[in-house]
Specification:
- The chain has a single domain, classed as Sandwich (Immunoglobulin-like).
- The chain is built from one helix and 13 strands, in the order αβββββββββββββ.
- It is elongated.
- Strands 2, 3, 6, 10 and 13 form a five-stranded mixed β-sheet that branches. A four-stranded antiparallel β-sheet has the order 5-4-8-9, with no helix packed on it. A two-stranded antiparallel sheet has the order 1-7.
- A hairpin with a 2-residue loop joins strand 2 and strand 3.
- It starts with a helix and ends with a strand.
- 12% of the residues lie in helices and 52% in strands.
- With 158 residues, it is mainly beta.
Length: 158
């Protein structure tokens, strides 16, 4: 009797999950911050050796710093998290805070401040890599992206 009940529960569970579509998976890759390519300028001229820091926070806080090359360019790879066994039919809200700061001559500039509400690749602006042109002479301001989201900082999105 117990065996028949167990088989029935397993069968109906599998049927439920197949009907709801991708409701259960064993390994789920979450994109916390899409790949970023950028250049740091001062009045249109490249700045070499400048510190660029990327921070992002989901359940944990992450931070990494790179320096610009001789052409003022920097790069951050895609930041991901892999979960084992996600039940996506359970309600949840995605909030990943993203920040990129530029430090030049003891001044810190807000390059990119954004709140990501999904785990999709290119979920920030609709394309990857995110390409930024950051002139420290620019005033930080709020800009609307092509996806309708808002980002704050001195960088222009290519």
């Amino acid at each position: 009797m117990f065996r028949k009940l167990l088989i029935s529960v397993i069968f109906f569970s599998l049927l439920f999950f197949s009907i709801t579509g991708n409701a259960m998976s064993f390994f789920v890759k979450q994109v916390l911050f899409s790949e970023v390519n950028g250049v740091v300028l001062n009045q249109g001229k490249p700045l070499a050796g400048v510190e660029v820091t990327r921070k992002y926070t989901d359940e944990d806080s992450h931070e990494e710093t790179v320096k610009t090359n001789k052409d003022g360019r920097f790069h951050f790879p895609k930041a991901t998290n892999t979960l084992f066994f996600e039940l996506s039919f359970l309600p949840s809200e995605v909030v990943v805070t993203q920040e990129i700061f530029i430090k030049y001559q003891d001044t810190v500039y807000d390059a990119w401040l954004f709140v990501k509400d999904n785990y999709d690749t290119a979920g920030e602006i609709g394309k990857e890599p995110i390409t930024l042109i950051c002139d420290i002479d620019n005033e930080a301001k709020r800009k609307k992206t092509k996806t309708g989201e808002f980002v704050y900082g001195i960088c222009q999105i290519e």
